[in-house]
Amino acid sequence: MLMGIIAVAIVVLGLLSASIRVVREYERAVIFRLGRLVGAKGPGIFFRIPMADIFRKVDLRVVTFDVPNQQIITKDNITVDVDAVVYYRVFDPIKAVMNVENYIYATNLLAQTALRDTIGQVELDDLLTKREELGKTLTQILDTATDPWGIKVVNVSIKDVSLPEAMQRAIAKQAEAERERRSRIIIADGEFQAATKMAEAAKQYLESPIAVRLRELQTLTEIAREKNLVVVTPTSVGSDLATVLGLMRTQSKESR
């Protein structure tokens, strides 16, 4: 009698142990009873009927995976190697189990296909300068395609773009040529401005011979100061200078 009670107790404890399951906060358990979908349970404790119920746990956290390196030909027929990262999460565990056999593998393959198709439609310059925009385009494409699977694609980031060595040298030469072109433009602009100023000064000197004489005296004075010389000017120069000074004084008095 006692042995029978012990045996029954062991069986009951075994059934209870097999019936009680725990699902974490970030998980859900999709339950099937005799092959039919019952629903999703969790988080916390749930009970299942042994030998009748089976379940599959689905992680609801954001999952990250690297898209394998893809060798792609751009729209302008340049071969590039592209690496990308995809961030996604499951928002409907029932769809993730019912509508696709392996949603992780399927999302990975779909990301590779979308990456090749999208990069193949853009030119190299856009690929190098508009990575963020291309990432947003890929995110929208993948999110739409995986929605029936209960998958929400959060973000797609183009991590790296590698060019053939010959193309890298060509781009470096192009950048050097562009820098040289800009440098020449700056020098030419400076020379043009200097020439314009010189032409204006020459015009002023032609219109005012006295200004020429004053400039000559200024130059001689500067040379004399540097060489410790005494400048002797012809009488006509002194006369002209006195005339200029007189005119300047007259204009000053009139302005007062």
Point out poorly predicted stretches.
none
CATH class bucket of the largest domain: Alpha Beta
Class by alpha and beta content: alpha+beta
Order of strands in the sheet with most strands: 3-2-5
Cα(first) to Cα(last) distance is 137 Å
Q: Helix content range of the residues, please? A: 55-70%
Which percent range describes the beta-strand content? Answer: 15-25%
Gyration radius, to the nearest Å? Answer: 43 Å
Biggest pleated sheet? 3 strands, antiparallel
The total tally of domains equals: 4
CATH architectural arrangement of the largest domain: 2-Layer Sandwich
Order of helices and strands: HEEEEEEEHHHHEHHH
How does this structure look, described?
There is one protein chain. The chain is rod-shaped. The N and C termini lie far apart (137 Å). It is an alpha+beta fold and 256 residues long. The chain is built from 8 helices and 8 strands, in the order αβββββββααααβααα. It folds into 4 domains: 12-59; 63-163, Band 7 domain (Tetrahydropterin Synthase, Chain A, 2-Layer Sandwich), CATH 3.30.479.30; 168-204; 208-256. The model has no long low-confidence stretch (mean pLDDT 80).
